[in-house]
Every structure is written in structure tokens, then in C-alpha cells.
Amino acid sequence: MAKKLGFTPDYAVPPGRILEKILAAKGMSKTEFAERCGHSAKMVSEIIAGKAPILARTAYEFERVLGRPAAYWINLQALYDTRRGEQEERQRLEAAGAWADKFPVTKMVKLGIFPKPVDAVDKVRKLLDFFGTGSVEAWGSMFEAQEGQYAFRRSQKLKSEPFAVAAWLRWGERLAESIECAPFNASRFRDTLGQARAMTRIPPEKIQERLVPLCASAGVAVVFVPELPKTCASGATKWVGKEKAVILLSLRHKSDDHLWFTFFHEAAHILLHGKKDVFIDENGLEADAKEQEANQFATSTLVPRSAWTRFVGGGHFSERAIRAFADEIGIAPGIVVGQLQFNGLIPYSSRLNHLKVRFAWAESEGQAE
């Protein structure tokens, strides 16, 4: 069987051209045709030139005079309008190539966010579809409005790229749509954090399957989202409506101490701060009042301050002492190591790093293990 080849013309034929040929075949002048239809010769000339459309009423008049069904003329006009619209849309998309080049499209394709674009125009189209915006101008207005809501905990060394961050946030938001959540309940979410804390000791491959439904029962969608190039983000928090919060976790540092600190840090934003800001955390040292509050919440939730003071007061940070303390307070020993390093009590190059559990993304890079 012969293979059919698709053909999409890059031009649009005004229906008036066909009208002109039909009039010529019938030997009817434009003036006579206009009189028969009850219109001016000028209007007919404008239709033939493509400057005026064939309206539904006009199509029925053409049907009576020329014997061609009204649907014929209406369909010709619709096809012309569609072709012309496609041409104009392609021109708009071609002009947006520089905008599309600001996104890490190669990595987004590799992660399966959308199929590989066939050309520059298709790249713009796929990005607009991904963001759910009708045009680059609409995306710009939306991004500018949201950019002021982004609350970054920035590092002096790491500089995130806003376009990459916007794509990462949108990806997490889209993944969160598939997580069914109960209406947000602050009291219930606080209760779930105690259960989440106990999960620091379970095998890493079990964390996602247990943490996600637990938090969803309190109205919080937890999404594990690999970082995109130049996002430099460990986690983020945003609200989707008034009844659903989203926590994004990137596993950026790929160790349990960073993962759990980031999770409880983001949980603090949900419980303690407003629903309008979008918090994006880079694990930097610069922190405003809200970030300091979230840091303190995460630290004290993971390691109660009274127990911590007693432990560090002893000054014994051997592997045996760390394991015993972690067992006593019910958390993973890697978290204790991370706290000791953050407070400058042991070096980051410590041999005790082997107590930390390491994470890696599965081959799909959308599943933590």
C-alpha cells in the first residue's frame, strides 16, 4: 500500500478567489452578482480581494444566486481563516525563539517532561503548552506577577537561573496535580510531621511511597522533582489554591540529612507563613526572618534542643556515640552527623559521613531510590 504523504500548505487562499473564478465561468460580472445578492459592487470586490469575509448571511445569498450550498462558502471562509491564523501564529512563535532558548529544554526532554521538539517553532509551542499559557506575552505577565512572590533562600556562591526555576516549579506543580489531597488541615499536618520524622530511619526506597500519602491526608502534596540545570534548588513550597500546599524536593545534595532538613524547612513555611509567597530554598547562608524561623523549626523538630544541648555538651562525637544518640531520640544517625557539621563541631570531610544515607534518582530520574 502506498504511503500517504501529509501536506500542509504555507499559504492561505481567500474564498473570494474561488468566487471570482465561478463568476467568470458563469459569465457574470461582479456588478450583476452584487445586484442579485443585494450588495454593493465594492463589497463584492473586497470579498474577492480577501479584504472582507463571507459571513453566514452572505453565504446563503451566494447559495441562491450561484447554486453552491451556503455550507460550501462558510467552509471556504473557515479554512481560509484557519490557514491565515496558522501563518500568523507561526510568525509569533518564530519571533519567540530567544525566549525559548532560555529554558533547559535538552534536560527537560531527557527527563520526559515533553517530547523532543522538531524545530525552533515547536520548541516554543511545547514550552507554552507545558506552562499552560496562550502566548509568550501571557507567560511574561504571569511570570512577572509570580516572580515577586518568590522568596529565595540564596547562596552567595550559587546563582539560580529564573527561567530554569520557573520550569522546575511548573513541573512540580503539574506532578502535584495527580496527587489527590484532603483539604489542608494545619493541625493534622503537624501530627503527620511526627510520623514523617520516624521515617528518617526507614530504607530510602520506602520514603516516597510512605511520605506522599501521609502528607496528602493533611492537604500537602509532596513531590520529588529532579533539579533542572541552574535551578540550584533543594526544595520549594507553594500553594495551589487555598486547600492544597505543595512541597518540592530535588534531592540536590543526595543525602538524608539534607533531604529531611529541607522537608521540615518547607513544612515550616506551610505552617508558619502566608499562602501567597513561593519559597525556593538553595541551602544558602543568607536568610531573612522567615527563613531563620523555618531553619529553627526544622532543626528543633529533627533534634529536640534539650537533647542536643546535653549531647554536644559531652563533647564525644564518635560513631558509637552518634549512633546511640540517634537511637535515643529516634532519628537516622546521618542527620546527627549533618547537624554536627553545620554547627562546626566536626568537619564536612569527616570519616563519619558514611553514616549518611545516600540517594539517587532511578533511570527515569523521576523516582527517588
From TrEMBL:
CDD domains: HTH_XRE. InterPro entries: Cro/C1-type_HTH, IrrE_HExxH, Lambda_DNA-bd_dom_sf, Rad_response_metalloprotease. Gene3D superfamilies: 1.10.10.2910, lambda repressor-like DNA-binding domains. Signal peptide: none annotated. Residues 19-73 form the HTH cro/C1-type domain. PANTHER family: ANTITOXIN HIGA1 (PTHR43236), BLL7220 PROTEIN (PTHR43236:SF1). Belongs to the short-chain fatty acyl-CoA assimilation regulator (ScfR) family. This is ImmA/IrrE family metallo-endopeptidase. The lineage of its organism: Bacteria, Pseudomonadati, Pseudomonadota, Alphaproteobacteria, Rhodospirillales.
